[in-house]
Structures are given as structure tokens and as C-alpha cells.
Design brief:
This protein has 461 residues and is α/β, with parallel strands linked by helices. It is built from 12 helices and 22 strands. Helices cover 30% and strands 25% of the residues.
Length: 461
């Protein structure tokens, strides 16, 4: 008999772990997976999926407001039912979680709905049942968890992105702490659902690391939607009052609110997993250090997804898990290509982006050409709305290759998913120019944008 009960034991049944277990089983390996919360992980249960459902809900506010301009008469003012949205969300994520579990079992993966910890390079323990399992390989796919920063008096009164989906009552006054994509998404959603939203962050603009044109455009659009920004400040104390919460800021100001959402980042979920005892190297943030193939410094222990704190996106975890299983059990040799990864920020308007920002391109390339436009979308011509679409194409001025495309506007995420194919294939600006436009559409501007708006040449010295 083999000294191992299984070939692969996966800790964490999120997107990356589930994919790895299913692919391993498909290659004929015996696979087991353990999940301490709910099968589906952050994306399905308390991340991308419920967030996008709430984004859809929030956008009806604009649709109702615009309807009259297109000839519709609403007999009465629309009313929003928070509890109905929460219940509908819960039904959908429960359905998806069930599908994830059914697909695992159908593939032949043994599922344990309990916590698992690492005992050594080839052994894990199921903590509720006390069962120890000897395994040829261990995959850590436990994802990440919200970080509450800074640690201040009254922090226990705050909530994270985990809790905000299931609040018992809708917060009429919401303070969002943080300027990253999670913070701006929730600020945008709750402002449109009817809350008075104040967003507090230390920087002078939202979305550090994104292209400047997108940052400025989104900030202005969110301000127009009613989000109040308190920049250059952070909370120093949270006090429970008879009317809600009193938040004191580092600039001396105060804000009264019903809820305060801390969205200042996430950290790898490795605490208490036993990785250090097994000799697995972690970085200062607690992330598992891995090579390009998902391997840790312990040959039998691997990691994929947010627990590596590399690129924290669901499709990345899925691709990493798939290719890892291929390599371990299917004879595969392919590594993940992290170039030209499309991503979206699901605010309203949303941002779609792929490739380099202008700042990154100017740092890496001698000559950079910028093609940028801002225009009023066709829908706004009847509504009189103030929204703008912003598009930016970044090009290597020496080779004409497109280095990055950034779009702020309706359905920009859908556009950028398709643009990523073009950039992955090495498209040049001349290829964009030679492509026939689809009229009338916002996306046609991407292939009719011929006039260069700026050129930057780096001094060779």
C-alpha cells in the first residue's frame, strides 16, 4: 500500500483550490479538499459575485432617473428594499456554492467542510474530526482576509467587506475608509442605493496604481454622484453614540454615520495553518513565497491565488490552480503568463484596464505616444447627464505596439476583456486604425482615435 492516502490535499475551496482539485482528479490523481467556511471562496461568497449583483442593483437608480427623457412615465417614485436584495443575493451565492460542491464530487474529489491545518510536508489535520491525512502534495489556496488598519479606539464598531453584504438594516450614512478598488466600489454602490457616503483616505486621489486619467475621471464622477471625499485623513477613533457612530479624523474633523466600512486592504490568510512549522517560507505580509510554478521552498507544498499576494484576481487563481495540477499530475510544463491581464473596477462609471499605465510605459520605454479622448456618451444627449467617457491608448512610439488601453465608462470591463486579446497578440496602433468601426457605439472611438495627444521621449542620458 502507498504511504499516502491521497495525491493532492487542497486547503481552501475557493476559485483556485477548486480548479486545482478538479483538474488533478481529471488526470487520475486522488484529490481531497477542505473548506472551513463555505465552498466557493471569497469570489463567490463575499467578493466578486455578490458585489457585482449589488452593482447591478445600484445602477437602477440612474435608469429610473433617465427613463423620463426617453418617454417613460413612472406612476410613483421607485422604492428600494435592502432586505430583498440581501435575500436574493444569498439565494444566488448558495446556488453557486452548491454547484461548486457538486462539480467537485462529480469529478471524484473528496470534500471536507471543516478546517485543515498543515502538520508537516506531507501531512494535514482536519481539526473538527481530528483526522490526520498523509498526502503526496499539499496545495494552500486559502485566499486573503480584510485588514483593519489603522488600529484605533472603537475599531470593534467598524465592519469589513465581509459583513457589508449582510447588514440587517441599510446604512443611511456610510463612511468608507480607503481609496482602493474595494473602497470605491462600495462607495459607488451605496451612494446610488441612497446612502450618504463619505470616503476617507490618506492619499490625495483614489485608486493608487491606476492610470491618472482614470483616477481623475472616476473621482469627478463619484463626486457628482454625491460621494464626499475627505482626503489626507484617516480615522483616529470611533465612538458609539445614541444616534449611530461618531468618527474622529486625523485632520481634527468628525463625521456622524450609521456604519463605517474599513476597506484599507487584505492580507494572505495563512495565520494558524501550521505552515511555519512545516518549514514553508512566508514573506513579511504572511504570504506564501512561491516560484513561477507555484512551488514553495518545501517541495511537496504549493500555493496559488491571493494567499501568495501576487496578483489578487480570481482568474489568476483559477489559471494558477489549473496549470499547477497539469504540471503535478498531467505532465504539463506551461507557466502562467502574467502579461496583459485585463481587470475592471465596478464603480459607476466602471473602469476597464489592460496593459501598462502611462507612468509605467514612460518608465520602461524610450518613446511613448498617448492617444486620449473624452466625450459625452450618446445616452446622455437625451438625459442631459454630465457623465463622460474617457479612453486612453498607450503606444510604444518606436515599434507602434499598443502597450495599454484604459477606459472609463459604461461596459468598459466588457470592452477591455476583448481588447486584452488584441494586446496579447501584439497589436499595433496601425491595426487599431485599420479596424472597421461599429457605429453607433462608444467602443468605435478605440479604432477611430487617430490624433496623437502627447509624445514623451526619454533622454538616453
Amino acid at each position: 500500500m502507498s504511504e499516502f492516502e491521497t495525491d493532492l490535499f487542497v486547503i481552501g475551496a475557493g476559485s483556485g483550490g477548486v480548479r486545482a482539485a478538479r483538474i488533478a482528479a481529471g488526470h487520475g490523481a486522488k484529490a481531497m479538499i477542505a473548506e472551513e467556511f463555505r465552498i466557493g471562496g471569497t469570489c463567490v461568497i463575499r467578493g466578486c459575485v455578490p458585489k457585482k449583483l449589488y452593482v447591478y442593483a445600484s445602477r437602477f437608480a440612474d435608469d429610473f432617473a433617465d427613463a423620463a427623457a426617453f418617454g417613460w412615465r413612472l406612476p410613483q417614485k421607485p422604492e428600494f428594499d435592502w432586505r430583498k436584495l440581501v435575500a436574493a443575493k444569498e439565494a444566488e451565492i448558495s446556488r453557486l456554492s452548491g454547484i461548486y460542491e457538486a462539480n467537485l464530487r462529480k469529478a471524484g474529489v473528496e470534500v471536507f467542510e471543516e478546517r485543515a491545518e498543515v502538520l508537516g510536508p506531507n501531512e494535514v489535520r482536519l481539526t473538527r474530526s481530528g483526522r490526520d491525512v498523509r498526502t503526496r502534495h499539499i496545495l494552500v489556496a486559502t485566499g486573503g482576509a480584510p485588514v483593519f488598519q489603522p488600529a484605533i479606539p472603537g475599531l470593534e464598531h467598524a465592519i469589513s467587506s465581509n459583513e457589508i453584504f449582510d447588514l440587517a438594516t441599510f446604512p443611511k450614512r456610510l463612511v468608507v475608509v480607503g481609496g482602493g478598488y474595494i473602497a470605491v466600489e462600495f462607495a459607488s454602490v451605496f451612494a446610488r442605493l441612497g446612502a450618504k457616503v463619505t470616503q476617507v483616505f490618506r492619499a490625495d486621489n483614489v485608486l493608487r496604481g491606476f492610470d491618472e486619467a482614470m483616477r481623475d475621471g472616476l473621482r469627478d464622477a463619484m463626486a457628482h454622484a454625491g460621494v464626499e471625499f475627505r482626503t489626507g485623513a484617516l480615522p483616529t477613533a470611533i465612538e458609539k453614540t445614541a444616534d449611530g457612530l461618531l468618527i474622529t479624523l486625523s485632520d481634527g474633523g468628525t463625521i456622524e454615520a450609521d456604519q463605517i466600512l474599513i476597506a484599507t486592504g487584505r492580507k494572505p490568510h495563512t495565520q494558524g495553518l501550521g505552515l511555519e512549522k512545516a518549514g514553508v517560507a512566508l514573506d513579511k505580509a504572511g504570504a506564501v513565497k512561491v516560484d513561477a510554478r507555484g512551488g514553495s521552498n518545501v517541495a511537496s507544498i504549493h500555493a496559488v491565488g491571493d494567499v501568495t499576494n501576487h496578483i489578487n484576481l480570481t482568474p489568476i487563481a483559477i489559471r494558477e490552480g489549473h496549470l499547477l495540477a497539469d504540471r503535478l499530475f498531467g505532465g504539463g510544463a506551461q507557466e502562467v503568463d502574467y502579461n496583459f491581464i485585463p481587470t475592471a473596477v465596478f464603480t459607476t462609471p466602471e473602469i476597464g484596464t489592460v496593459g501598462l499605465t502611462e507612468a509605467e510605459a514612460r518608465e520602461k520605454f524610450r518613446c511613448v505616444d498617448i492617444y486620449q479622448t473624452s466625450f459625452r456618451p450618446m445616452k446622455a444627449t437625451l438625459t442631459g447627464g454630465a457623465e463622460r467617457v474617457i479612453m486612453k491608448i498607450i503606444v510604444d512610439g518606436d515599434s507602434d505596439r499598443v502597450l495599454g488601453v484604459h477606459v472609463l465608462g459604461e461596459d468598459s470591463g466588457e470592452m477591455v476583456q476583448l481588447l486584452a486579446i488584441s494586446l496579447k497578440l501584439g497589436a499595433k496602433k496601425a491595426d487599431f486604425d485599420a479596424t472597421m468601426a461599429l457605429h453607433p457605439s462608444a467602443a468605435e472611438e478605440l479604432v477611430t482615435l487617430r490624433n496623437r495627444t502627447a509624445r514623451y521621449i526619454r533622454d538616453a542620458a
